[in-house]
Amino acid sequence: MYKSFNSQILKYLIPVLMLAGTILGTYATWSGNTPESSAFAKSMIPVIVCSFIFLFQMPFRLKNIQTTDAGLLVTDFGKETLIAFKDIKWISKFDLTNPSAITIKYQDVQSRKFQKISFIPQKKDQRVFADDAMTDFIRNKIMQENPNYSKEEQPSTLKNLIVLALLALPFGLLAIYFQFAG
Question: How far apart, in Å, are the Cα atoms of 145 and each of 67, 86, 87?
Fold first, then answer.
């Protein structure tokens, strides 16, 4: 069967290091006491805020998963949960990230609410603009066990990109304003 990339280091360490590096770099630039460095540091503040908003959700959704014949075995801090293939509503890949993050929306058996988890496939299995072997396997199992599954219900990669761009646009415009306003 398939196993996802062990994402424990990515869950917490990478977002913290990225934010810490950006904040420290901005502080060092700001303390340069020149108008150019001060303008650059001010323009980085909206970038830091935008990055924090998008990186904040990463630790909560990213899980380690393993496929079984019964479903997906999700492991998070030693707690294992089995998600049956018939309970999965869709599986989607956002191609414009590296490593590729795969998102699964499923219905929780106990609460009957829909939840989302993400995983990162093994590096050797990742493909650009095509599903990796693990995602293909999961999608085929979903289609076998869930007669209501439809690929059309998956989120559109283009739509996700447009939404992400629109959400980041005010932060980008603010950064440009601070850069040129001095």
Answer: 14, 5, 9
Residue 41 Cα distances to 46, 123, 169, angstroms: 10, 36, 19
Give the length of the chain. 182
| Contact (Cβ atoms closer than 8 angstroms) between residue 38 and residue 71 | no
> Rounded distance, CA 120 to CA 101, Å?
5
**Tokens at 175, concatenated:** 């950064």
Q: Which phi and psi angles does 98 have, rounded to 5°?
A: -140, 120
Q: Which domains occur in the chain, in start order?
A: 8-58+163-181 (no CATH), 60-161 (2.30.29)
Beta bridge partners of 91: 104
- The amino acid occupying position 12 is Y
**Residue 157 contacts by C-beta under 8 Å, 6 or more apart in sequence?**
92, 93, 94, 95, 96
Mind listing the pLDDT tens digit for each residue in 125-148?
655 555 678 888 888 899 999 888
Cβ contacts of residue 111 below 8 Å, gap of 6+?
none
The whole-model pTM stands at 0.72
Given CA atoms 123, 124, 127, 131 in this order, what sign does their dihedral have?
Answer: negative
